[in-house]
Design a protein that fits this description.
This protein is of the alpha+beta class. The chain is 43% helix and 14% strand. The protein is built from 38 helices and 35 strands. Strands 2, 8, 9, 10, 11 and 12 form a six-stranded antiparallel β-sheet that branches. Strands 22, 23, 25, 27, 28 and 29 form a six-stranded mixed β-sheet that branches. The chain has a three-stranded mixed β-sheet with strand order 20-30-21. Keywords: ATP-binding, Chaperone, Magnesium, Metal-binding, Nucleotide-binding, Nucleotidyltransferase, Transferase.
Length: 1109
């Protein structure tokens, strides 16, 4: 770690060599034969028209490359992947490039096989001046065997971020992978959420290894002898910076039951290296953002820079990863998560660690662990891993205390400093939202004389106590003796110089890098990249422009430097502090960010705390977590490859379903405040289901997307009403676009296609629905019921009587004389007779039954409510069905005009806004019975659970079909919304409304992304291609079931317009309102008597490492 621990890098006396001439080796590939499980020979894909954007001078020195080499064509060819050094293509021999295969845990779950999906290692080189060996690697140079569904490319945006931060961390003295060069691939366009320019970073590290213990020890860490000796005692682990004891690989040390062999020493060394690195992260406010096990280096290096960030306003709960809703990788949890990863590493080495002195026993090597040895082996491994945890903690604290002491200007650490200086300072920074790194830099330049008197501290009363403690410790530490005496100016100047040497004036914050990316990518600038790299490599300077560096006058931009090292823009401050507060910090009083007039701090205006009333509780609402929780559960069901959700039932069998509204309504969160947010999103699904009958999952996904962006923008200071106006204007534009492009459903095949898609690709359900609708008509009644067999059945009500006569009576019929004329007419015409009356009994009923039994007359009597008017003749119908529950009259032979008039009358009442939903439902049933037929679909299955799940899909399919018939169809799979997003270009009245439009534009791409993601593919890649390459083809979409780009209409992948329209309107309405919500009120829980205290349980290992900080 010579170079990583010493930003000064290699010796200036070594002039360096060209890339062609620097020493090269391929120890990795020569030591390890390649096969399906180990690193694979892999050449880069040569890019067209590469342009070298930037080179790190520090990286050039540390690799031993001669200055000026970056200006040669050979250099460009190598760093862009167009030329392989050491490989003879004609002879097919020499050193070859490779990619690694490995597995790991991601977000706490085993992710299976991973691997270098876009990283290709070229060779290893050792700098003769330092003796440090590095492995050079291209990132973004094309496909590897482990690219899975990705393209092996990197975009310019992320490449700039990695290029700058790698070298910035090195300059701060933080162990890290490095970056030599950044190359723009001008002929390469990379599909992400949009089409972006591609780029390649040539990065290097002492090792990119993530596995293989023996190779790591012998080839990377300098041999087994360089590893640490045993722990001094289990109770007091070693805190030495270099714990090496020079033990031979075969030697065993340690107490009985915890004997340490070479693999135990290797494990402890990896843990120690990582403990020192994470301590440096914490001291400098750096957050990786994605600390999965595959991003934890065996060398303790900072590696794989995705959503990283340097802290702006100090917030220990801050995470730069917007997908990390549980804060797993937040600033405060980084020490814990690195240890969690190391425990997983220990488990992988567990058998070797636990073998102790027997690790080289020939019987063990050949046969492995015998059953009688397992208990002893496991016990030894667990004990060593636990002791290593204590060593990890001790190493972390030692390094953290050392750095924090230096940052505060202290030459020596005292035990009381942690509680009296470090912790109180972090609390104050959090409370007053002070800029983390700027505070230390400005404190460095603050003369102690300004803090000597109470009068001078009066304006800083809010932290005067801490400042007073700090001043006294500085005076004691710098040898003034009396803490009340003044520190001589010369010593104070030395203190200032020492503090500035460890407190950077510049760190590449996210907003700075965003500006650099915009200027390089959009505006074609190149010098800005050189300037930001120069500042990153020299972070401790007061200024840069016009100063000499290594004897060369540096031409910088003073105005740019002042802005990048000044106060964080208000928009950025608000976005981090307030948005993150709303998402995760419910219950703490709000405080306004301090103005920046004072070099250290300023007065803080605080608002009143929210209080509790006698009957209710008032609290700031942390809504991001509950919204994400519900939406994640619902969105997993979306698309042809969506998953089922198992729901517990309070009685009976559990329910398995993919129905979005059922899943949403089943979710109840324990926290009452969070449950409010979840129920509001569930209301979106319910409202969409009520109106359209389907599309509830899409509506939930849309609601989450709109809500999350609304929260961020409101927190950043946007006018919530203008934001909402922009959202609604965009939704109106999208709906209008969809209505223009919809097409009517015309064939039974299209009906089946709509039903099939809504039933999650079940063609059987689609055909059954289409068959039923064909028989009963578009306005007919189709009912889905649970069957009693294993098969699904469509039961169309069959005719009981052919062309019967109908006698209607508003009165009760008892006397036979009242029905004799009707009986005679029925006999003479040889037509069945149906009697519908208030009631029928006595002689009249007896005569009917007798004639029916004798076969002389087909007659049925139906008891019904009274009728208006008096019938003056017998009515007639085509057919009639009478059961115990229902009487259904089909093909009535009355006046067609009168029937049509009655249907139009019903439709008019349904269109009246004052008609309730219940009344509309009943009127729709009446309309269906007047104008169509009736069918019953009985759902079969082998169990109650299966029948329930299938019935949900039948109902969804039926509702979607009705919606499609009513308003028409669109290309499905989220395609129509994608095409609407591509054309959305309305110009609202102001900037905040424009942000609302942007929120909708982004949100309506999310359903398609979720569908593709559930199919195991990269949603952003597919969506980007559809919006760019196929933007002009409205019907072109992606069939996630087959993984093909197809004409969605021709392929039968359809969405009803009514479903899409309703889901979008409901989602935008609720989500935009919810996004402006800050306070919630719930009923206060009644306090019951306290229950008996439970047992202590187990500690469960190191836990959260909360005692570290």
């Amino acid at each position: 770690m010579a170079s990583d621990g010493d930003p000064g890098g290699s010796s200036n006396s070594y002039p360096g060599a060209t890339l062609q001439d620097i020493p090269k080796s391929w120890t990795f590939t020569s030591s390890l034969p390649h096969d399906a499980f180990y690193p694979t020979p892999q050449p880069p894909t040569p890019p067209r028209s590469p342009e070298l954007l930037g080179v790190s001078p520090a990286a050039m020195r540390d690799l031993g490359i001669v200055a000026g080499e970056e200006k040669t064509g050979e250099f460009l060819q190598v760093v862009s992947g167009n030329k392989l050094l050491g490989w003879d293509e004609e002879a097919k021999e020499g050193g070859y490039s490779w990619a690694q295969c490995y597995g790991g845990f991601q977000f706490g779950a085993w992710a299976g096989q991973l691997g270098d999906g876009r990283a290709i290692s070229l060779f290893e080189t050792t700098n003769p001046a330092t003796g440090t060996r590095y492995e050079l690697q291209l990132k973004g140079a094309g496909l590897t065997p482990y690219s899975r569904f990705a393209d092996g490319r990197a975009v310019l945006r992320s490449s700039i971020r990695e290029f700058v931060v790698s070298e910035a961390l090195h300059a701060l003295g933080i162990p890290t992978t490095r970056a030599l060069s950044l190359t723009l691939c001008k002929g390469s366009r990379v599909v992400r959420e949009r089409i972006e320019p591609g780029a390649i970073v040539l990065r290097f590290a002492q090792s990119w290894l993530r596995q293989l213990a023996t190779y790591l020890a012998e080839e990377v860490l300098g041999g087994w002898e360089s590893l640490p000796g045993m722990l001094s005692t289990p109770e007091k682990p070693s805190e030495n910076e270099s714990a090496s004891r020079g033990l031979d690989a075969s030697e065993i040390e340690g107490e009985p039951g915890a004997e340490e062999n070479r693999f135990a020493r290797l494990y402890r060394e990896v843990a120690r290296l990582n403990a020192e690195t994470v301590a440096k992260w914490q001291a400098y406010g750096f957050m990786n953002g994605v600390l999965n096990t595959d991003n934890t280096s065996v060398m303790g290096l900072s590696v794989d820079f995705g959503p990283f960030a340097f802290m702006d306003n100090f917030d220990p709960s801050y995470t730069p990863n917007h997908d990390d809703s549980l804060l797993r990788y937040s600033y405060k949890n980084q020490p814990t998560i690195i240890w969690w990863n190391l425990v997983r590493f220990g488990e992988a080495l567990g058998e070797l660690i636990g073998a102790g002195a027997g690790v080289d026993d020939p019987v063990y090597v050949k046969e492995g662990v015998k059953s009688e040895q397992e208990a002893e082996l496991i016990s030894r491994a667990e004990k060593i891993i636990t002791q290593t945890g204590e060593e990890y903690k001790a190493t972390f604290l030692r390094e953290y205390k050392r750095l924090m002491s230096a940052r505060l200007g202290l030459k020596n650490y005292r035990d009381a400093d942690f509680d009296q200086l470090f912790s109180p300072l972090l609390d104050l920074m959090h409370e007053f939202e002070l800029d983390f790194n700027q505070f230390f830099r400005r404190l460095s330049a603050l003369p102690l004389s300004e803090l000597e008197t109470p009068e001078a501290r009066r304006d800083k009363a809010s932290i005067s106590e801490w400042l007073d403690r700090w001043r006294k410790r500085i005076i004691e530490d710098w040898g003034a003796g009396n803490a009340e005496a003044a520190l001589p100016e010369d010593r104070d100047a030395q203190r200032t110089k020492a503090m500035k040497a460890v407190n950077p004036n510049f760190t590449p914050r996210g907003w700075v890098l965003d500006e650099v990316i915009r200027r390089v990518e959009k505006e074609g600038e190149r010098e800005v990249l050189r300037r930001v790299m120069h500042m990153a490599l020299n972070p401790f300077e007061d200024s840069w422009a016009g100063k000499e560096f290594e004897g060369v006058l540096y031409e910088g931009d003073a105005e740019e430097e002042a802005r990048w090292t000044g106060d964080v823009p208000e928009f950025v401050r608000a976005l981090q502090s307030r948005a993150h507060f709303l998402a995760n910090q419910g219950g703490r009083p709000l405080r306004a960010p301090p103005p920046s007039s004072d070099p250290v701090l300023a007065s803080v205006n605080s608002s009143a705390s929210l209080t509790r009333s006698s009957s209710s509780v008032l609290r700031l609402v942390p809504l991001s977590l509950p919204v994400s929780t519900l939406a994640n559960a619902v969105s997993s069901t979306l698309g042809p490859k969506g998953r089922n959700v198992l729901i517990e039932s309070s009685f009976g069998s559990p329910k398995i379903t993919k129905d979005g509204v059922t899943v949403a309504k089943a979710i109840t969160l324990e926290d009452k405040f969070e449950n409010l947010g979840a129920k509001l999103i569930a209301e979106v699904a319910g409202k969409t289901n009520e109106v359209a009958g389907d599309g509830t999952t899409t509506a939930t996904v849309l609601a989450r997307a709109i809500f999350s962006e609304t929260v961020k923008n409101v927190a950043a200071g946007c006018n919530p009403m203008d934001l909402r106006r922009g959202i609604q204007a965009a939704v109106d534009d999208v709906v209008e676009f969809l209505q223009k492009h919809k097409r009517d459903i015309t064939t039974s095949e299209e009906v089946a296609q709509v039903a099939t898609i809504s039933a999650n690709g079940d063609e059987h359900i689609g055909k059954l629905i289409a068959n039923a609708m064909e028989k009963v008509g578009k306005e007919g009644v189709i009912t889905v019921k649970e069957g009693k067999t294993l098969q699904d059945e469509m039961e169309s009500q069959k005719v009981e009587f052919e062309k019967p006569l109908i006698l209607l009576s508003e009165k009760k019929i008892s006397a036979v004389q009242d029905i004799i004329p009707a009986l005679e007419a029925s006999t003479q015409l040889r037509r069945p007779l149906v009697i519908i009356a208030e009631d029928i009994d006595g002689e009249a009923l007896a005569v009917c039954i007798l004639n029916k039994l004798r076969g002389q007359l087909q007659v049925a009597a139906v008891k019904a409510p009274g009728f208006e008017g008096h019938p003056d003749m017998l009515g007639s119908t085509g057919s009639i069905t009478i059961t115990k529950e229902d009487t259904i009259i089909l093909n009535g032979e009355g006046s067609k005009d009168a029937l049509t008039q009655r249907c139009e009358q019903i439709r008019g009442v349904m269109a009246d806004p004052s008609t309730s939903e219940y009344e509309k439902e009943k009127l729709q049933e009446r309309l269906a019975k007047l104008s169509g037929g009736v069918a019953v679909i009985r759902v079969g299955g082998s169990s109650e659970v299966e029948v329930g799940e299938k019935k949900d899909r039948f109902v969804d399919a039926l509702n979607a079909t009705r919606a499609a018939v009513e308003e028409g169809i669109l290309p499905g799979g989220g395609t129509a919304l994608l095409k609407a997003a591509a054309q959305l270009s309305i110009k609202p009245d102001n900037f905040d409304q424009q942000l609302g439009v942007s929120i909708v534009r982004n949100a309506i791409t999310q359903p398609a992304k979720s569908i593709v993601k559930n199919a195991g593919l990269e949603g952003a890649v597919v969506v980007g291609k559809l919006m760019d390459e196929y933007a002009g083809d409205f019907n072109k979409g992606f069939d996630s079931a087959k993984g093909e780009y197809v004409d969605m209409i021709a392929a039968g992948i359809l969405d009803p317009l009514k479903v899409v329209r309703t889901g979008l309107r409901d989602a935008s309405g609720v989500a935009s309102l919810l996004g402006t919500t800050e306070v919630a009120i719930v009923d206060a829980p009644e306090k019951g008597p306290s229950g008996p205290m439970g047992g202590m349980g187990g500690m469960g290992g190191m836990g959260g490492m909360g005692g570290m900080m």
